[in-house]
Each structure stands twice: as structure tokens, then as C-alpha cells.
């Protein structure tokens, strides 16, 4: 049995094994396009309807529009749920826009969510936790939402550098005078999107509105900041 025959036989064996490999199913096109529209709308603004209806290559435009609209309506709640279960922190390779779309399909669609692609499997693995928080939000929707706490990784940059970096991007730094805790709590509870403060007690902790989205921010991606509860 010649060496050349042995090489050919091994090559055929490898090729056969590769052809038998069971790849993950592709993400359904409706979810991919909905995630794309959601990202564009949140990052660039404009008309949501126009963004969606520009996807002329897809037949079910109304389905995309309904899905993205429902996601936008529940955007803050979805972010809060993801924070509580640590979904985007644990699933670091998960596209956050697709995750929000799939969560909406799971929690607020009459048809629910089904499929065997990896992103759908990930969302379904958090199903019980997401449903629990969705139901608790429904029962207590009038409660005050916790602000979003951001810890500066001082091994990567100083607190002043972090503050100045956000200011240079157009964020408004709100200063708090004095050390009265009750007035501080009242102030952070009224923070608007685009505003942030320095925590009263922990010098490397920044405080943002609960609606603030930072998963796509460069400082988060580079691990220069960490998202956390204040007690963490």
C-alpha cells in the first residue's frame, strides 16, 4: 500500500467527516433584518417605519415592523431583564440587537419563539428567568427603576479620564453638591438619557439613567468599564 494511496485515503476520510458535521441552523431572516433595523434606529435615529420598509427584498415587511416596534416599546424592560439574568455578560458573543429581538419574540409574540439556531437556543435557555422578570415587571410596573451603575476599571483608565471621555462624546455630567444621601438618591432617580453622575460613596462608580445602553460602547467592549449593581 503506497504512501500516496494512504494520503488519498486519509484525505477522503477527512472530507467525509467534514461533510457529516452538523452545522447550526441559520438565524431566520426576519430576525436578522429586525435586529439590523433596531440597531440603526437606536444608533442613528430617524423614522423606524422608513428603516423597515426599505428592506424591500424581504416579503414579510409588516412582520418585521411589528417585531421591531414591539421591541422598541419594551426596550428598557428588555435591558433590565438582561441585566438581571446577566445574559449579555455571560453570552459575550451574542449580538445584543438580535438578542433583544428574540426576547421580544419569546415574551410578547402570540407565536412564541422556536428554532434550532444557536441564538434562539441561547434565549430559550434563559426562558424561565426572562418570563419571571417580565411577569414581575407587569405586576409592579409603577416601581422606581434602579439606575445603571458603571464601575471604572482603574487598571485601564482613571475615573477622570472616563468622565472626560463621556463628556467628549456629548454626555452631560451632573454634579452633586454635599453629602446628603437622600438628596443624592432623589437626584439619580431623575437622571435623563445622556446624563450621568459620580457615585456619592464609591469614587470609581459612575451612575447613569436606568435606560442607558452601554453594551455597545467601546469602553465596555475593551473592559475599561464594567456594568454592575452598586452592591457588587
Automatic annotation (TrEMBL):
Domain spans labelled NOL1/NOP2/NSUN 5/7 ferredoxin-like: 147-228
Record-linked InterPro entries: NSUN5_7_fdxn-like, NSUN5_RCM1_N
Domain NSUN5/RCM1 N-terminal: 62-132
Pfam family, one: NSUN5_N
Name of the featured protein: Uncharacterized protein
Species per Swiss-Prot/TrEMBL record: Photinus pyralis (Common eastern firefly)
Phylogenetic placement of the source organism: Eukaryota, Metazoa, Ecdysozoa, Arthropoda, Hexapoda
